[in-house]
Specification:
This protein is an alpha+beta fold. Among the domains are: 44 residues, no CATH class; 125 residues, FAD/NAD(P)-binding domain, CATH 3.50.50. It has six helices and 14 strands. Strands 7, 8, 9, 10, 11 and 12 form a six-stranded antiparallel sheet that branches. Strand 4 and strand 5 form a beta hairpin. The longest helix is centred in the N-terminal third of the chain and has 14 residues. It is globular and about 65 Å long. It binds flavin-adenine dinucleotide.
């Protein structure tokens, strides 16, 4: 709550504070406790990630990018004449390399460079048990709820698949290749119990589940930095469950670093060095 308010005040974003009574009047879908408070940001919204990624790729191609689909990088190495990238279809050379491989970054980097963890997350979609119209986007917001100290659930209004609910973190650590993709009855029962207590009218039929992978840095903030041993290689780990909305801004930062070798943003918060033993203090 404090973080959201500080960010809104720092950047001049409009917001309003709601106490439990105001929440019950405006958003009765949430079974809040008397002691709970909320911050509402009228300009918050929803992105369609598939449409966003397609649009970004399309624009990149229009500006001369070549996309090599289904050609995984198996390894890379720095040489005096450039960076060599190995793929099943052969070797590629370039002056600079950007590694932005999400949950697959540890395999391309090594934990000694960046101690990332990969965390299996589960998404759930429910139909409404009562009053389905009240979960329509016009009446029900996207939300994130710190329902216990440092424990979060978040969700979306009823879009295509139903009312989406998920936990933020608290997932199983894994590797992309070994992540458990099926969702157990116990997991479904656990989330249903949470919904029944906190969003009772949303606890209808389960409409679907999906699994996804967070790639976490030790402090859950991004890494936008040069490789410590090879400055022609840029490392982009912008996830920890909250990086998608920043994709365009991060793209701009990385393009500036590649072309101008500097960015108009202060990148100190995103430096790798903050994880160095000494830096952690
Ligand atoms: C359940 C869930 C919910 C989320 N919700 C939100 C949200 O509401 N808002 C938000 O802002 N963020 C959210 N995020 C976080 C967001 O998805 C990530 O921050 C973002 O996708 C990270 O982008 P990325 O480009 O670093 O990695 P990715 O999107 O994972 O992209 C990495 C790409 O690299 C490719 N790749 C991997 N290895 C190789 C290789 N060896 N060679 C070639 N290509 C390779 C992969 O195929 C993939 O396409 C969520 C994430 C999850 C898992």
């Amino acid at each position: 709550m404090r973080g959201a308010i500080r960010s809104a005040e720092t950047h001049g974003l409009s917001f309003e504070r709601l106490d439990a009574a105001a929440m019950r009047a405006r958003f009765p879908q949430f079974a809040v406790r008397d002691s709970e408070v909320a911050v509402r940001e009228p300009r918050a919204g929803v992105l369609d990630p598939e449409a966003c990624v397609s649009a970004q790729l399309e624009r990149a191609v229009q500006r001369g990018a070549e996309l090599r689909r289904d050609q995984p990088v198996t390894s890379w190495r720095a040489t005096h004449s450039g960076i060599e990238v190995e793929t099943p279809r052969g070797r590629e050379r370039a002056a600079q390399l950007v590694l932005a491989a999400g949950a697959w970054l540890p395999a391309l980097l090594g934990a000694d460079v960046l101690p990332l963890t990969v965390e299996r997350m589960v998404l759930y979609w429910f139909g409404a048990a009562r009053d389905p119209e009240s979960f329509a986007p016009e009446r029900f917001p996207i939300w994130i709820w710190e329902h216990e100290t440092d424990r979060y659930c978040y969700g979306f209004p009823a879009l295509e698949r139903g009312i989406k609910v998920a936990r933020h973190h608290e997932g199983e650590l894994c590797a992309p290749e070994t992540a458990r993709r099926e969702v157990s009855d116990a997991e479904i029962a656990g989330m249903r119990a949470w919904v029944e207590q906190h969003l009772p009218d949303a606890a209808g039929a389960l409409r679907g589940t999906a699994t996804c992978l967070y790639t976490n840095t030790p402090d859950y903030d991004f890494v936008l930095d040069r490789h410590p041993a090879e400055e022609r290689v840029l490392i982009v780990s912008a996830c920890s469950g909250h990086g998608f909305k920043f994709a365009n801004a991060i793209g701009e930062v990385i393009a500036d670093l590649l072309i101008d070798r500097r960015s108009r943003f202060d990148l100190a918060p995103f430096r790798l060095a903050r994880f160095a033993a000494g830096a952690r203090g």
